[in-house]
C-alpha cells in the first residue's frame, strides 16, 4: 500500500520518464521500486531506518537503497536527472534536504517535492533557496501537493557544521556539550523529563547499557560523565539523531556504540541497564504501540540484576504494560508532567 504522497507521485510519473532518480526521505512503502516503471534507475536514501527496512528487500541492479543523513562517500559526487523529496515531518529538516538535493543535480536538473497538505508543504516557496527556480504546483491529489522546480545555479558545498547547533547543557552529572542537527528534538536547557531521569540515576550502574531512542545523545553523555567505564549502546531510528549523538559524544571526548535499530530488531543479547526517555510518536501521530513493544522487549533484554529506568509523560499508559511484562510497577519519582519508572531484576 502506497502512502498518499507516493500515490501523488505515481500520478505524475511522466515527470521522471527514463530519468536517473534520487529519492530523499522516502516513506514506509515501495514507491521507489514502482518508480522504475518510469525511471531508468533509482537511488533511495531513507532518513528513517524502518522505511529503509521496508524497501531494502526490493533492492536490485536498478534500485539502490541506503540509510543515513547523506549518500555513501562513493556517491558524494553522483549526479541525477531528477531528485524527489518527501516533505519531512520535522519542517526544519527541509532546508537540509534541499541543499542535499542540489549537490546531486546538474544545472537544469528537476526537483520534485511532495507532501501532505497538513504537513507544511504549502510554505515550500519560502523555504526554497535561490539556487532553485520558484516551485510550481503541479498537482493536488490524495490530500497532498506536488511541486516542481529546477536547479538554476550551483549551490554551496554541503557542510554538516552549517546544520548543527552546539551548546553547553547543565545536567546533574555536570556540564555537557550537545550537538544537534536540524530535525532532531533538542532544547538548550534540560527538559523536565530528562532532568527527572538524570536526577535519579542508579548509583551502581555498570556493564552494558542501552540508551533506547538516543536522540542527540544527552542521556548517554550524562551516563558516561558519571561513569566513563560504561559500555553504552545508543540506538535510534532517525539518521539525523544518530549523527547528532555521534557528534555529541565526540564533542565530549566520549565513546559509545551508535547504530540504527527499528525497535529492538537490530539489538542482540542482554543489557545490565536500559535507561531511556523513550519515543512515543510515529511521525506526527502519538501511539501506544511503541510503548507496549518497548516494555515487552525491554523485559526480555534485561540481564539478571539489570536495571530498567525510563521517564514518560504521565498520560501515557505505561503502568498496565509494565505490570504485564515486569510483574510489578515501581514509580521512583514523579512531578506534575512525568513519571520515572524503575525495575531491577
Would you mind describing this structure in some detail?
The protein has 345 residues and is an alpha/beta fold. The protein is built from 10 helices and 18 strands. The chain has a 7-stranded mixed beta sheet, with helices on both faces. Strands 12-11-10-13-16-18-17 form a 7-stranded mixed beta sheet. Strand 4, helix 4 and strand 5 form a beta-alpha-beta unit. The longest helix is centred in the last third of the chain and has 14 residues. It starts with a helix and ends with a strand.
Condensed summary:
The chain has 345 residues and is of the alpha/beta class. It contains ten helices and 18 strands. Helix content is 25%, strand content 32%.
